[in-house]
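Note to self: keep these together.
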Amino acid sequence: YSIVGSLNFYQRKEIKDLLAYLNCLGNPADNESLLRIINEPPRGIGQTTVNRLLGFAAKTRISLFSAVQNQVAIKEMNSGAHKRVAEFCGIIEEWRAMSTRLPVADLVKEIVEELGLVSLYRKSSDPKDIARAENLIEFVASVNEFAERFAIDNERAALLEDFLPYVALQTDLDKVSEELDSVRLMTLHNAKGLEFVVVYLAGLEDELLPHRMSMDTIEEIEEERRLFYVGITRAKRELILSLAEARRLYDTYSFTQPSMFLDNLEDVLDSPGHIAAPAQSSYRKPKNKIRESQKHFKIGQRVWHKEYKQGVVLSVDGMGRDAVVTVSFKNGKLIKIVGSFLQTESVT
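Structure:
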């Protein structure tokens, strides 16, 4: 496949940063990956300190990580730099030890939560940073899917050494030339003005199309409907509309609700039964759609917990105070919790 008009998933900054951490754990001599993460997220290790580490590594003919491990021997570094490099070294060595025994799915969750990457991007008001947080959550979900398939095929838990070759292959697939005969993946916005013999529209679920951030007003929903119209009119001969019965969010599953835009389309579709009752599923579309405005907890809402303190709601399953809520806390923890344990005002 090839992606049109946007960065490939594994080429995005936040994903490359996380992969660099994993590569360093698998191969500490990977200087390129180490240089990428040594101050990402920012931990006070500036370029001057990095240059001194590189100089020491070149002078003593050792890897950059070996220089990090032996940073006390670099006299040019001040005490603050020594401390920060030592703390970074301790984190990497701890995760390296964990990587040989901890399942890769648990290891990746540990790294994401300890680094606080999701909460770091969620604090920003920049839509690009919010998208980065969602990409990291999707990456964790993909690791869980890999681990499940690996366990079925090999009858043991997948470790980091099992995952790295797989993800290297996926990264190579992301570099496929657009000139090759391949499936074209693109957003609805990027599809404007284009036509194809066959078009697949995936993810026709409420909170995806229409998007959960565009469901509060009639104007927002109608703009999403126009995007849906753009998508279905790209097909010359054949149009396939699809949706998932359930989706993985981080490391859990939630049932989906078919898009409201599929209503009243049964008369013009060849296989309308798949809308109301997906095959091999007991799930049925609810008669009354739950809107974000009807929920006690809302995506993006700030909440407080006695132990974890302030956090931001990422997803909500249910309407009342007892809804199951996924929250990204400021301390980096990403936790699924019953809403009654949360408060919408600060706990004093």
